[in-house]
Amino acid sequence: MQPPDHSPADLHSTSLSDLHQQCEAQLAAFRRSRNTQQDSSSCEEILRRAANRDGDDAAFSLLWHITTAFVRQTCPPQCRPFLEDIEQEVGLRLFRRLRLSPSPYQAGSFAGYRLYVNLTIKNVCTNLHRSHDIKHASLEFHPNIPSPSMTKEVLRHMLFNRCEALLPHALHREIFRRRMVQHEEVADIVAALKDRYPEITRNQVYRIIEDSVRRLKSDPEVREMFESMGENE
């Protein structure tokens, strides 16, 4: 295995935003090399923070952001017409397993987590494909109907992922994620971005947040999702 970029102690004190950047770089390296021994320590730290009953909500949001890419990449062709439903069902199962299960998912290697997600996708797809009726399939998926609060939490993660995908600029996406998903203070966002964007100011960050929300709420689908969930930010 390639040596990790940081020791476990370093990772425990690393910010989620930095972990996200490191994790994305590790995943990109894996896609290029397909080396199963590729370092994934930052991804595993995100998983560790998210995978327990008292887990970090921002870490779970970030983990789900990363996981949706796996869902889209590995969803079998016969189930792609129902991709949004599959994303929601996988998200609900993941939330139950990481936060509500008497035996929560044990955060081990990130390769093991990806395998768990892939098996969940295939299971959901198989049940859905057999049904041929998404409404009936939804009932079959939920012998124990999830609580409204749990469903809303997963939908919230999906909403923010959808919003981020609609923003055209990388800087706008990062500021949106830091402020709206990770709930960072504007001063902290400015400090984190200074190395890459030396001219960034608090006023610019406020303006980008306002412009992003205005742009997103002009999209009928996103506006409807915001309204249905009571999101006023």
From TrEMBL:
GO molecular function: DNA-binding transcription factor activity
GO biological process, one term: DNA-templated transcription initiation
SUPFAM superfamilies found in the cross-reference section: Sigma2 domain of RNA polymerase sigma factors (SSF88946)
InterPro entries to which the protein is assigned, alphabetical: RNA_pol_sigma_r2
Name of the protein in question: Uncharacterized protein
Organism lineage: Bacteria, Bacillati, Chloroflexota, Chloroflexia, Chloroflexales
